[in-house]
Specification:
This protein has about 250 residues and is an all-alpha fold. It is about 80% helix and about 0% strand. The chain contains 11 helices and no strands. InterPro entries: EcsC (IPR024787).
Length: about 250
């Protein structure tokens, strides 16, 4: 059993290294062109609309982030990384299925139900992050852990240009978290919501179209939830191995 866990941990280390390389990769020509096009489109949207969307998304996310039912989740301790990740994969599978079903139902309902998909799907993704955080042994009672969840969310749904910036804010988190502002209002909500909207617009807009909305909703929600889960796993693997490395140095 020990050998199995050791092999799993080594595999996790390899997967993490490949993921970290991807996070640091500069944007491709296609990435840059897509980014410029999206920025041009955003420039046509009135400032008051941007402010309204930012305020709405901020309140929605803060409502989940500070909800007592999530903050009070107990962190799981005393088990190996392999055991943790078996449980994490089970939760990702559960939320992928739930999100896909939700996307299919709202997609089949046309524009009105399609618009309702946004807050429901957002809530499902944040709930998944809370569960993953607890399974890796972190308590969301700590405000800084909730900020880490926001960074994971942003990392999963950002452009290639923004992705590297966010990733570097997460490296050596045990040190970086002490530099966080005391007030979550100081978080860059405007950038957060724009990156998220820009990332999912193409994947989700077709969900509003009658007939094809249902299958599009199923596939889009499934893939986006899976992406968030994989991002979260690697973000917490990074902390697991950073902590192990720091503990090793402390023993010398």
């Amino acid at each position: 059993m020990t050998d199995l866990f050791a092999a799993s941990e080594e595999n996790a280390r390899r997967e993490l290294a490949a993921w970290q390389e991807k996070m640091l990769r500069p944007p491709s020509l296609t990435d840059r062109l897509s980014r410029r096009m999206q920025q041009k489109m955003n420039s046509f949207i009135p400032e008051k609309i941007h402010r309204a969307i930012t305020a709405t998304m901020k309140q929605m996310i803060r409502g989940v982030l500070f909800g007592a039912e999530f903050v009070s989740r107990k962190p799981v301790t005393g088990i190996s990384l392999a055991e943790k990740e078996m449980k994490v994969l089970e939760r990702i599978n559960f939320y992928r299925t739930a999100a896909a079903a939700e996307g299919g139902i709202t997609g089949a309902g046309g524009i009105l139900l399609g618009l309702a998909d946004f807050p429901i799907f957002l809530s499902l993704k944040l709930k998944l992050l809370f569960e993953i955080s607890a399974l890796y042994g972190y308590s969301a009672d700590d405000y800084r852990e909730r900020i880490y969840l926001l960074y994971i969310f942003q990392l999963a749904f950002s452009s290639a240009e923004k992705r590297r910036e966010v990733y570097l804010q997460m490296v050596n988190w045990e040190t970086q978290k002490h530099n966080l502002p005391a007030d979550i209002h100081q978080f860059d909500w405007r950038s957060f919501q724009q990156e998220y909207r820009d990332y999912i617009d193409l994947a989700k807009m077709a969900q509003l179209i009658p007939i094809i909305g249902a299958p599009v909703g199923v596939v889009a929600n499934y893939k986006l939830t899976n992406k968030l889960g994989v991002t979260a796993m690697n973000a917490y693997r990074m902390r697991w191995f950073e902590r192990a490395a720091n503990a090793g140095l402390a023993k010398r």
